[in-house]
Amino acid sequence: MKMTFRILLLIGSFTGQYSMAQQMESLDSITIKSTRIDLPFKDNSRTISVISAEVIEQSPATNLAELLQQEAGIDIRRQGVNGMQSDLYIRGGSFDQTLLLIDGIKVEDPQTGHHTLNIALPLEVIKRIEIIKGPAARIFGQNAFTGAINIVTKSKDNLKNNVSFQLGSFNQQHSSATLGKSLGNTNLMGHASVNSSDGYRYNTDFNNQNYFLKSSFNTHTNPIDIIATFSERQFGGNQFYAIDAKEQYEETQSSLVGISTSWNRGRLKISPQLYWKRNQDLYLYIRNRPSVYRNLHISNKIGAQVNASYDSKLGVTGFGIDVAKVDMNSNRLGDRNRWTGNFFLEHRFSFLEDKLDVTPGVAINYFSEFDFNAFPGIDLGYTINKNFRAYANAGYTYRVPTYNDLYYVGSKDVGNENLVPEKAISEEVGLKYFGKKMTASIAFFNRDSDNLIDYTKENEDDKWQSNNLKSLNSNGIELQFASPFNIGQYTQNFNFGYTYLNEDLKAVRSNFSKYIINSLKHHFTANLRTQFTKNLSQSIVYKYAERATGESYGVVDAQLKLMISGLELSISGNNIFNATYVETGIVPMPKGNVLFGLRAFF
């Protein structure tokens, strides 16, 4: 049965290809929101990738973790299917060194970066994803050590009402509804979904619920947006966190409530936001015996930020401030709280008839445990002609230790209250090409990191303890290419990306080190999305990874879609050639599996 589906999907990749439900969003029309000064995509002097709603709709991915795996340089290490437990890495950085934002709101978790993707939004409500690779501390402050990802949510205007149901391998059952309505100058949209499975191996079952609500008021003048999202995940964690632990179990709850607006006063633009972010994590070492070992962590973050820009004869000045109060209640970490603050200032100068732009800036950050730190940086860009743009950037970046790093006390691990922030200086140079038939880019990057946190011990029977013991140089190259082409009356799309990463770890000053370098040394991704007939469509994705330890694997995902009078029938296949591989730890990823889907639009 599985072989039949793989053959059908493979044949489809060469015959009945992907349906373009709507044309790809023009890069010229996109204004990047994850930079403090709003700039068209083509005018940025950083390595920025954009995943549009059209690309999301055409992808075989069913969740954010799978979608981000299709981007070269993004290392998503999953344990299981449907993104139940996934960690996010950019260009070799750790899961604690990447910042996630939702509509510009920072949703990092103070306990541990393991929880970053707990709040991942359903794909149905995402308008686009903006990915900044490289140092972003000057823009966002703490946690944007190796990069940042901003999820921009949809509004009622770019939403199609729909309900869907999927059924597939491992008794996966996914149900969702996404609805929107306009009431005068108020827009409302909402999403609800439930995803469940018996698991692809012992004790890997899961149940995941997602709810999202967005209201836009006063849409005819100065819109006020309110978003609220809640995600609950319950899953078995067979060997997720310990080799000999097959009965582990975890429940997480993540929520965010935010209100934002923006108004222009001549040359001045001001964008304030208020938000509350909560995360709860329950961990059991033995699922049916909570008394043996149980962790319960609850964190709350309440914050406010104001971003502004002023356009003058000297250029554009961006400035702003954000302040937040963080509280943690935990049976392992104790009761903790901290105040955080971030002030940024940058100015974009233009010379040589706007061909050359120079943007120096600085971020000043405050953490109540670590006082003030200043992180300067600079972006340079030169428009060679209408097709080519060269750019360079450099900056200091840092990461404050998480509460796990500082205070955790477990059976095998122990934190260290004397830790200091990790620091690095990063540089990047690149060249972008924008043509009518293709876009391409190449970037060379380098990062020198110090005070990196590792868990070490002197004797084999000792507990692992967190320490600032590592210095690391990371450098590499990244290539991106995309090209639409026509076959008959339909537009086809092909793109690929490649990242090479070289890491030179300086001597670790300890007898035993827990975290070895296991980044993606070679990472290649390719996507083919085409259409030959009116109603039949397909996409196929290839991902190749070779890690620093020498392990390598290639995975192929594919999807077929058939549109019939407002109904969408789909077959999605993951790992259709049964590759054997592990993304993190010793947890094997599932072999070939399929999902049958039915979606109704109205």
Work out the helicity level. Answer: under 10%
Please count the helical segments: 5
**Rounded average pLDDT:** 89
Strand fraction band? over 45%
Gap from first CA to last CA:
33 Å
Structural class by SSE content: mainly beta
Low-confidence residue ranges = 1-25
Q: How many beta-strand runs?
A: 34
Summarize the main sheet: 22 strands, antiparallel, barrel
Molecular structure report:
The chain is built from 5 helices and 34 strands. It has helices at 2-14, 53-58, 64-68, 137-140, 403-407; strands at 31-32, 39-40, 47-52, 74-79, 85-90, 98-102, 105-106, 126-133, 147-153, 162-168, 172-183, 186-197, 206-217, 224-236, 249-261, 263-265, 268-284, 294-312, 315-330, 334-351, 356-367, 371-383, 388-399, 413-414, 422-434, 439-457, 464-487, 490-505, 512-513, 520-530, 536-547, 552-564, 567-574, 593-601. The chain has a 22-stranded antiparallel beta barrel. The longest helix has 13 residues, at 2-14.
Brief summary of the model shown:
The chain has helices at 2-14, 53-58, 64-68, 137-140, 403-407; strands spanning 31-32, 39-40, 47-52, 74-79, 85-90, 98-102, 105-106, 126-133, 147-153, 162-168, 172-183, 186-197, 206-217, 224-236, 249-261, 263-265, 268-284, 294-312, 315-330, 334-351, 356-367, 371-383, 388-399, 413-414, 422-434, 439-457, 464-487, 490-505, 512-513, 520-530, 536-547, 552-564, 567-574, 593-601.
